[in-house]
């Protein structure tokens, strides 16, 4: 039987595998992690609202019933399209007849990779654990700090980038400070914490229409977030973020910085030896294969695709739809039939901001506030994988809604020594 290799069991890869269930093909699913991750709720793990198993599930168990799939936990290091093989990190090779590359995306620091350890981005469970630890430790350090200036630095949280993830992070951080931690500290008042959202462009949620962006900004401000649009970050160190705005250069004293400003395609795209676009994505035709190789498909965040003349966004519904079309085109190729062209079905956009605050756009319908938040809750529970995950998330959310408490606040490692360089200049904001 033809051998199909799928690299990556995210939204795109999993949809492709499922669309090939029952087909006369042997599938090898290769992923470097052992779990499928529901990234839209990752910020909830980073902010201690949900535990990791609530939003992820073992790939082996998800695909256990699908007898034509073998799952391998391994990182693909290279692809040789001429020899039709993928090369794993240990140098071993696996041959394919058809290949679907669905390796997703990673963070982009716009040429400033030195910022990565100072301002982690959110993409994997490891990132979420790292961010959760930094947030909770910042309050711990603040409680131990005698110097009021340093204490204020620990209690200032900066989120860079006001896309959906940045907005969600900022809205949840302020809820933690104002509600979750209330009454738990003796020397600090967590309510005094500042959450600053820095955005280079002139509005938050730039992918939404301007009126919804403005509603989102107003909801953030109402929750207590300090929203600074038109602010381009120029430097990050352990004690501050530097940026420029219309008034010139600014210094924001802040010891916890979260990056949600840039996305770049997975570096695996380079292995295909085709010219990539500026974000490192692989341009593919309407049938989703690369030029000259009708057996090699690229889907999801890694693919640069247009549908009806418009670029397809890097969102989970697009990745799933591409996965299904790639699977159908493999079966069409095997049967000697013409491939199907990918047409993106846009069902709308949603972003949550905090408790009872969200914006939504479904077709021509735009709404915000409580109804949008309820709709967001419903959609995210509905699309979670597995009944157990849905039950866990609903229980944790119901508990959090009623008590303002967050159920996943346990951090495991011992206390690091906080960075304690002498202050070289006074904070200006
Ligand atoms: C924090 C966050 C929030 C988001 N929120 C939303 C949202 O609310 N709504 C929405 O529609 N979209 C959202 N997205 C975007 C959405 O998650 C992506 O568009 C979608 O995951 C893309 O699917 P994919 O299959 O291309 O890649 P992914 O789902 O990222 O899957 C890629 C898989 O490839 C594996 N992999 C990568 N490299 C290798 C390698 N070399 N070898 C083996 N395996 C490899 C990874 O382990 C991963 O399992 C969000 C993304 C993030 C990061």
Automatic annotation (TrEMBL):
Residues 348-402 form the External alternative NADH-ubiquinone oxidoreductase-like C-terminal domain. It catalyses: a quinone + NADH + H(+) = a quinol + NAD(+). Keywords: FAD, Flavoprotein, Membrane, NAD, Oxidoreductase, Transit peptide, Transmembrane, Transmembrane helix. It comes from the Bacteria. The keyword Transcription does not apply. Pfam families: NDH2_C, Pyr_redox_2. The chain crosses the membrane at residues 370-387. It comes from Herbaspirillum hiltneri N3. The lineage of its organism: Bacteria, Pseudomonadati, Pseudomonadota, Betaproteobacteria, Burkholderiales. This is NADH:ubiquinone reductase (non-electrogenic). InterPro entries: FAD/NAD-bd_sf, FAD/NAD-binding_dom, NDH-2, NDH2-like_C. Its EC number is 1.6.5.9. PANTHER family: EXTERNAL NADH-UBIQUINONE OXIDOREDUCTASE 1, MITOCHONDRIAL-RELATED, NADH DEHYDROGENASE. SUPFAM superfamilies: FAD/NAD(P)-binding domain. Belongs to the NADH dehydrogenase family. Residues 3-323 form the FAD/NAD(P)-binding domain.
